[in-house]
C-alpha cells in the first residue's frame, strides 16, 4: 500500500505550490487512475513517487516504510515508465534491455531471465534484434513498458503509456497493464484518455491546482444522486428549460440535464414538444468519467 499524507511541493522561484497537502491511500494489487488537467500537479506527484523530487512537507510511505527507506531496502521497488521514450534509439531491443538491466544491477542469469520475461510480456520476441528507432509507435511503447518491468517493481508508475499508438496496440497495452497486479505489480496510471481509465482502473483520484478534488472507487464516482439525462435535439434547447434543469451544452445540439427524479422525464418531454423541440436521441443513466471530471474541474483534461 502506498500512503501519501499531507504532501506539498513548491518549485523554486514560484509563488503557487504545485501540490497542496495531497493525501491519498493507494491500495496494493490494483491499477489506480490519476487524472487531472495539464498543470494540475500530476507530473509533480509522479516525480515525488519516483524519487526525482523530494517533498517539501508531508510523508510518503510504501508498505508501512517511509519512501526513502523503502527505496534503500529495495531500489527496484518503484519503477517509472515516462511519457517520453526512455531508451536508446540506436540500440536494438535486446541491447536496450541488457543496458537498463545493468543499470538496475542485474547480471548473469538474473539479467537473462528478467530480460526474457520482459520481452515475453511485451511480445517483443520478433524484434529483439531490431534497432529501437526502427520500431513502430506501438512497439516503442511496448519496449518502454518492458524496460520498466525489468526489476519486477512492486509499484509501476505509468505516464501516458498509450500516446501515439494504433488501436490494436492500445488494446494490447491496456490488457497487459490490467494483468500486472496479478503478477505482483501495482500500477498508478495517468492518461488523457478517459475511456482507458474507465476500462482498467477500479479506483481513481482527480486532482487540480495541486489538490485532490475526489478519490474513490470508479463505481462510486460515477454514481449520480440525480438522474442524468443526455439528449440530442433538432434545435437549441430553450433557455428557460436549460436553466431549470442545470443543462450543460455538450456540443452541436447535444445537452446533459439533471432531473430531480426519473418521474420528471415525461413532463420534460411534453415541455420540449410544446417548445417545438424533437429529441432524436435520449439516454437516462449515470455519469461517465468525463462528465464527472468536467463538473469538478470546469475544464477539459487537456486544458
From TrEMBL:
Keyword Nucleus on entry: no
Any Pfam family the entry gives: ABC_tran
Residues in ABC transporter domain copies: 2-234
Molecular function terms from GO: ATP binding; ATP hydrolysis activity
SUPFAM superfamilies cross-referenced by the UniProt entry: P-loop containing nucleoside triphosphate hydrolases
Entry keywords, A to Z: ATP-binding, Cell membrane, Membrane, Nucleotide-binding
PANTHER family (UniProt xref): LINEARMYCIN RESISTANCE ATP-BINDING PROTEIN LNRL
Protein name per the record: ABC transporter
Protein source organism: Dechloromonas denitrificans
Amino acid at each position: 500500500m502506498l500512503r501519501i499524507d499531507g504532501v506539498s511541493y513548491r518549485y523554486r522561484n514560484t509563488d503557487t505550490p504545485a501540490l497542496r497537502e495531497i493525501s491519498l491511500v493507494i491500495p496494493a494489487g490494483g491499477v489506480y487512475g490519476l487524472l487531472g488537467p495539464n498543470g494540475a500537479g500530476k507530473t509533480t506527484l509522479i516525480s515525488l513517487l519516483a524519487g526525482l523530487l523530494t517533498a517539501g512537507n508531508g510523508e510518503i510511505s510504501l508498505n508501512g516504510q517511509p519512501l526513502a527507506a523503502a527505496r534503500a531496502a529495495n531500489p527496484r521497488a518503484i519503477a517509472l515508465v515516462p511519457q517520453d521514450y526512455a531508451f536508446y534509439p540506436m540500440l536494438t531491443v535486446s541491447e536496450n534491455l541488457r543496458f537498463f538491466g545493468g543499470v538496475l544491477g542485474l547480471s548473469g542469469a538474473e539479467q537473462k531471465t528478467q530480460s526474457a520475461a520482459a520481452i515475453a510480456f511485451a511480445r517483443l520476441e520478433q524484434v529483439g534484434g531490431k534497432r529501437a528507432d526502427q520500431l513502430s509507435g506501438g512497439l516503442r511503447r511496448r519496449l518502454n513498458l518492458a524496460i520498466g518491468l525489468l526489476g519486477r517493481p512492486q509499484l509501476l508508475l505509468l505516464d501516458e503509456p498509450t500516446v501515439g499508438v494504433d488501436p490494436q496496440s492500445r488494446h494490447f497495452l491496456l490488457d497487459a497493464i490490467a494483468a500486472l497486479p496479478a503478477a505482483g505489480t501495482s500500477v498508478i496510471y495517468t492518461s488523457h484518455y478517459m475511456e482507458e481509465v474507465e476500462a482498467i482502473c477500479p479506483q481513481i483520484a482527480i486532482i487540480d491546482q495541486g489538490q485532490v478534488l475526489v478519490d474513490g472507487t470508479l463505481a462510486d464516482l460515477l454514481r449520480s444522486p440525480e438522474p442524468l439525462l443526455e439528449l440530442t435535439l433538432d434545435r437549441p434547447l430553450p433557455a428557460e428549460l436549460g436553466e431549470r434543469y442545470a443543462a450543460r451544452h455538450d456540443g452541436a445540439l447535444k445537452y446533459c440535464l439533471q432531473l430531480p427524479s426519473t418521474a420528471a422525464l415525461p413532463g420534460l418531454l411534453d415541455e420540449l414538444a410544446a417548445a417545438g423541440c424533437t429529441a432524436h436521441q435520449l439516454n437516462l443513466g449515470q455519469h461517465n468519467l468525463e462528465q464527472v471530471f468536467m463538473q469538478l474541474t470546469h475544464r477539459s483534461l487537456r486544458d
